[in-house]
UniProtKB/TrEMBL annotation:
Function: SbcCD cleaves DNA hairpin structures. These structures can inhibit DNA replication and are intermediates in certain DNA recombination reactions. The complex acts as a 3'->5' double strand exonuclease that can open hairpins. It also has a 5' single-strand endonuclease activity.
Gene: sbcD
Protein name, entry field: Nuclease SbcCD subunit D
Molecular function in Gene Ontology: 3'-5' exonuclease activity; endonuclease activity
Assembly notes: Heterodimer of SbcC and SbcD.
Length: 386
């Protein structure tokens, strides 16, 4: 059976204030055509359909149009909600959609209820696990602690319990939206650390024949059987080096991976990250190839030159981001970039840094730390409940 695996559409998202709805519509056209051209037997969509819990109306209209087109493909379509989606909003009408062979799962308690498929080699149980916000689903899943590993482990116990009751030789596929240890991040994924440690171990999926992951925006294979499809479009300049694609996976008898094909997605406009003095960026002939790219320019002039955005915009009409990193005098140590200072720090650590900064270096005490944690967890929970 051939599965086409995609995720992280983020319908409604912009790229540095540039609307991407036309590019997202072009991706949907490409997706539909790929299903037909490659004769895929099922489509897997591993979460983050929308970019936010309350998406803009044009994004909702595009998704509605997409659902109608997916229903016309004549193959099972299996979708889950991601951490950007509102499970309640996205899940409206899921029961009716199932009659059209679109299996949209947003309820954590359905984790042990597979979509059952069949091919010439027997049955395949596909388990769609929606994004599991620890604070919201711990009690419902019977997890020991409100952490990402614990709630996903509880969901996988339901999966294994159901799979054990299936006929011998039943193959298994899991859809999940999570940060799995070993995955390579970019700047455009929303932080999920408020619910405990962000990453979960690959061992949670031991014994599953294929794991179709969503959340990280770079396509990557953690193992032959555990893969991220990545987002179909770039959503930050940190994704400049990404190859946006879909996975076409052929699952044979005994759960063997018999086909492993990476299919490129259409690119609305290439990205370029340029660095140097203003004069260099304006005159270097090698940069002419970036004229039609979306551009992030980092200026290294010792002082800020006049009107850099307008001047650069004459050469690079699609300049979207301007960063200043002045070249320092010899012997002067360079401080870390703002983005580097934030890298690998949780929301609570960043909030604590701010308190320390405005209070002259005084650290948050344990009580304040607990309040910060509760506030961040409350904000995340409220977003998921919208």
């Amino acid at each position: 059976m051939r599965f086409l695996h995609t995720s992280d559409w983020h319908l409604g998202r912009a790229f540095h204030r540039v609307g991407l709805l036309d590019a997202q519509r072009a991706f949907i056209d490409h997706l539909i055509a790929t299903v037909r051209d490659k004769q895929a037997d099922a489509l897997l969509v591993s979460g983050d359909i929308y970019d936010r819990a309350v998406p803009p109306l044009p994004a909702v209209e595009l998704f509605d149009e997409t659902l109608h087109r997916l229903a016309g493909l004549g193959i099972p379509v299996i979708m889950i909600s991601g951490n950007h989606d509102s499970p309640r909003r996205l899940g409206v009408g899921a029961g009716l959609l199932e009659r059209s062979n679109i299996h949209l799962r947003t309820d954590p308690e359905s984790c042990g209820e597979p979509v059952l498929l069949h091919d010439a080699h027997g049955g395949i149980a596909v388990y769609p696990l929606p994004y599991l916000e620890p604070a919201l689903v711990r009690e419902r899943l019977g997890a020991e602690r409100p952490g990402h590993t614990e709630v996903l482990a509880a969901a996988m116990r339901r999966v294994r319990r159901d799979l054990a009751a299936r006929p011998a030789g039943t193959r298994s596929v899991v859809l999940a939206h999570a940060f799995v240890t070993g995955g390579e991040e970019s700047d455009s994924e929303r932080d999920i650390t408020a619910g405990g440690a962000a990453s979960v171990p690959r061992t949670l999926f031991d014994g599953v024949d294929y794991v179709a992951l969503g959340h990280l925006h770079g396509a990557q294979a953690l193992t032959e059987r555990i893969r991220y499809s990545g987002s179909p479009l770039a959503y930050s300049f940190s994704e400049t080096g990404h190859r946006k694609s879909l996975w076409l996976i052929g699952l044979g008898p005994g759960g063997r991976i018999e086909q492993d094909e990476r299919l490129d997605c259409p690119v609305p406009r290439p990205l370029a990250r340029l660095r140097g003095t203003l004069d260099h960026l304006l005159t270097d002939p090698a940069l002419e190839e970036c004229r039609e790219h979306w551009v992030e320019a980092t200026l290294t002039d010792p002082g800020r030159p006049p009107d850099p955005m307008a001047r650069l915009g004459e050469r690079f009409p699609h300049l979207l981001s301007l960063v200043f990193e002045p070249r320092r005098a010899a012997g002067t140590p360079a401080g870390p970039r703002y983005g580097d200072r934030l890298r690998d720090r949780t929301d609570q650590q960043i909030a604590g840094d701010f308190l320390r900064h405005v209070r002259g270096g005084r650290e948050p005490d344990p009580g304040e730390g607990a309040l910060l944690a509760a506030a961040l967890e409350g904000a995340r929970t409220q977003e998921q409940q919208r």
